[in-house]
């Protein structure tokens, strides 16, 4: 959805008027704004002048003339000398201050020349360096179909126009719809769907008539650590090429691609991040600080709805781990279809935690491993299983053919199962 343009801003400049008040026999000055402050008024500190009046020991005084002793005369002379010197020093200091102010020592940044243009490369491992590396390979996808229009993001994995994105970004165009790819340089091209997987929320499209495109570098997600830096890139609210940064907030977070309204079939083993992700970021890459894609931005948690019912970022976003997405995208690119990893059981949340088995597929991996209805799976390898979604997410993190160890109940029983694959239906 497009962002709402802001109202024209108003800029108010505040100036301060400076005024000097000088003796009436001096010229008065007043300046304002950013001008030079006026010179400070000053007076010299000489001895007092004018009649002082009769002194008690002077001529005509009640006690008559009194001869000043030598010691007293010396003190009086020294006192007068100190007053004269002090007064002179004060006057000199006043002149110096006035001269400095009159010299125009006011600095105005608006009058300074612009700084030198930055020419050094971005520091390795910085957000700037990551953006410089990845942005050319991130695209905006504009989708029309089934009476609706929307937009999302994607990233180029093949120089011939192969692009990975989310299924929910392009799903509307699956039935005779249209997809337009807008590249980082502003050029655009039509695209067609190569294949999609609603259960993992991964899709692959191909831009038409393109070659020599810059591709991303794929990393891995099995060695991610909570707290490490990440960068999300995409087109939130049609603002293409938007870069946000954050950290890995959590790993192995069971998340339904359709939110709480999504079925258990869409549960993914998500990377949680606090990098800002908003509607339109979907399908874009989540990358590490080496500029390698480690996830596909897919969902956000938003406690309230925003414009047109779409929530905004509250610092809780989810990405599909690239290890899972890469396997699926590669399979789609090769065959046009995806295979889902399955255990062959139906589960719900256990009353005391864990995944409670309510159904076992005949001849499936679970049945062959000896799982029965009523069993409660509490651990898969080293991962604690506290809900049914946690079990689905843990199974999805593996590929068909992987062997897993399942702990049941309080650990009194353990079985080993070989996971199988099942072709995903897109309708």
What does this structure look like?
With 427 residues, the chain is of the alpha+beta class. Among the domains are: 73 residues, Trypsin-like serine proteases (Thrombin, subunit H, Beta Barrel); 119 residues, Trypsin-like serine proteases (Thrombin, subunit H, Beta Barrel), CATH 2.40.10.10; 85 residues, PDZ domain (Pdz3 Domain, Roll). The chain is built from six helices and 23 strands. The strands form five sheets. Strands 3-4-5-8-7-6 form a six-stranded antiparallel β-barrel. Strands 10-11-12-15-14-13 form a six-stranded antiparallel barrel. A hairpin with a 7-residue loop joins strand 10 and strand 11. It starts with 17 loop residues before the first strand and ends with a strand.
Short description:
The protein has 427 residues and is α+β, with helices and mostly antiparallel strands. It has helices spanning 70-102, 127-134, 167-170, 322-335, 365-369, 388-396; strands at residues 18-19, 30-31, 138-145, 148-156, 162-165, 178-182, 188-197, 202-207, 217-218, 229-234, 242-256, 267-273, 285-288, 292-300, 317-321, 339-342, 345-349, 355-360, 376-380, 383-384, 403-408, 413-418, 420-423.
